[in-house]
Amino acid sequence: MSAENSPKIEQIELKYLSLKDFEALKEVFIEIYGDAPDAYWKKDELRGLIDVFPEGQVVILINGDLAGCAFSIIVDYGKLSDHHTYDDIAGDSKFKNHTEFGDMLYGIDVIIKKEYRGLKLGRRLYDYRKELTEQLNLKGIVFGGRIPNYYKVSHEITPKEYIQKVRTKEIDDPVLNFQLSNDFRPVRILSNYLDGDKDSKEYAVLMQWDNIYYEKQTKVPTNQKSEVRIGLVQWQMRSYSSLEELLHQVEYFVESLSGYRSDFALFPEFFNAPLMSKYNHLSEPEAIRELAKYTEPIKNKMSELSIAYNINIISGSMPEMINNKLYNVGYLCMRDGSTERYEKIHVTPDEAKIWGMQKGSEFKVFDTDCGKIGILICYDVEFPELSRILAKEGMDILFVPFLTDTQNGFSRVKLCAQARAVENECYVAIAGSVGNLPKVHNMDIQYAQSAVFTPSDFAFPSDGIKAQTTPNTEMILIADVDLLALRELHNFGSVKNLKDIRNDLYTLTRKE
Hints:
The chain has 512 residues and is an alpha/beta fold. Helices cover 28% and strands 24% of the residues.
């Protein structure tokens, strides 16, 4: 509709259908489908719809004039035949297929008056259906979509080929294009769907929109969160006279983050390095192996603190001896009392050369009460394959404890962490240490600016930075992240990095 032919709009109103709308609605249907007896909804049929599901029946008014409508019912999707027809769904005036215990909204009619087409009123009606589906916690929306231009090419191509050509813009089908542009996807072809639909050759396409916010009903209570509060510790390297003194500082930070009701506390890589000062008279390989003796008691204390302060603690990393070999490891101490171990997969040339550090081999996604998380230690975030595998396994938040001595070393970690957030559509939290340790060989200076990074789209900060600390200053950082925003991004983002992977050209898989 051109701008000069568009009616002047003073008011648009979306309201529930009532029987008072019958005559106006009848006129709209006759205008479009003619005055055959079955061309419009009868009053008893409308009464049946209103009686069983009033929220599913809406009309849209322009300046008080009925401009369109959308009707729907709730069905038990598992009980629908794969080859059902329109009459199977809406063929009786009592709408016996409707059930309040169903799991899917079934669209049975949408129509827009000719003079109001081009005003995107159909999109408003579809948006209402989507919002209703979310409010009712239904799995999604389905309907049989007509393919009104199919008759033009039905002698040349199948309905399946027709859909593909519409998708690739070789054929223009305004109805199917509209549905695809509103995030509906074809599920299957329905033959003999609508009796008398000559334009579609009585075919329809079962279209489906998935409610990404749907939560399966369960009798087991759950406290899974969608709003997650992340706490980062930007740790000051300083001398400690004993393990108890270091643990006192750890508890101080845990208590502080817990006081702000944080869900996670992330410590940096090798935050316990100050305990090596008493072994400075030993060689560097010997000193770090002495430090490894503190790992078990620190892990046990952090597990106690996670329960006492009701916070999930990510222990950064610490050296650990396994079968007389040195590894860089950390522990996820969850507030339910369980612990999980993670390893540094890639060791830096200095770690291997100076300490004899061994490469780890285990990395995975951890299920927590705040979603699925991954943990990669420092250098590991510079290898995009690891985080991509974790993202494919459902990771929502990636935690990266790090230790860097120079600004360019820190920049490698920061820039790669930001890239991981964008390409994997997840949050990435990094935490490092600051200050210096003049009495600890190979750990004398530190540089850090801890931060929480986000994907880059309209629902997130334009620079992809949720929050960040002051560089080289001891402090904590607290940031809230929304896991539901990630679900929205995965399905409706400006770009879809995970969905658009070309698995037909390349693959990324774990080795057993």
